[in-house]
Amino acid sequence: MSTWLALGDSYTIGEAVAARERWPAVLAQRLHHGGMPIDEPQIVAVTGWTTDELAQGMDAAALLPPYDLVTLQIGVNNQYRGRPASDYRAQFVGLLDRAIALAGDRAARVVVASIPDWGVTRFAREQGRDRARIAAELDAYNALARAETERAGAGFVDITGISRRHPELLADDGLHPSAAQHALWVEAIEPAVRAALRC
């Protein structure tokens, strides 16, 4: 039975959806039923976490490496709080290095998911947020994450486009993705995870 560590923020923990509906749980079930048995993922993620807060959360967590799979999805709260992309890059690289170490120094066993675009949500619209600026800043963050992930030899999956194509798929809070959007993310992430687990 493979082991999985899922690192992130509200998108990984599944804020505003049931635990069984968040994408790591849905993907674990799909893998298990698809002939690739995997334990329920150990999730180290809290709504609102930035990159440095995730690092602190990892310091405090009871981790049991090596994991067969480590996923990482982080950065939206850095952008939300107006932090510069240069800070994000440095802290993301630190988290990516830790993720690879936790995967037994097997970079191919690490999969990074991009940051969804919260600027398309009802919350952003009702708050009068600059949606174009949010999109541009998140694109910059995601470009940095992709470049560093590929440089390290890990996998990168773009789910940002899904959030932009389906702005209606939101939880009741009008900000976080609904179970239906989590399911679409699973469709995108599953091939990369299967490839990682076959390495």
Question: Can you lay out the helices and strands and say which pair or pack?
Answer:
Layout: E1 4-8, H1 10-13, H2 23-33, E2 42-45, H3 51-60, E3 69-73, H4 76-80, H5 85-102, E4 110-113, H6 122-126, H7 131-152, E5 155-157, H8 160-165, H9 179-198
Parallel strand pairs: 1-2, 1-3, 3-4, 4-5
Helix pairs in contact: 2-9, 3-5, 5-7
Question: How does this structure look, described?
Answer:
This protein has one domain: Rossmann fold. Helices cover 51% and strands 11% of the residues. It contains 9 helices and 5 strands; from the N terminus they run E-H-H-E-H-E-H-H-E-H-H-E-H-H. It has a 5-stranded parallel beta sheet with strand order 2-1-3-4-5, with helices on both faces. Helix 2 crosses helix 9, helix 3 packs parallel to helix 5 and helix 5 runs parallel beside helix 7. The two termini are 15 Å apart. The model has no long low-confidence stretch (mean pLDDT 97).
Features:
single chain; 199 residues; alpha/beta; Rossmann fold; 5-stranded parallel β-sheet; 51% helix
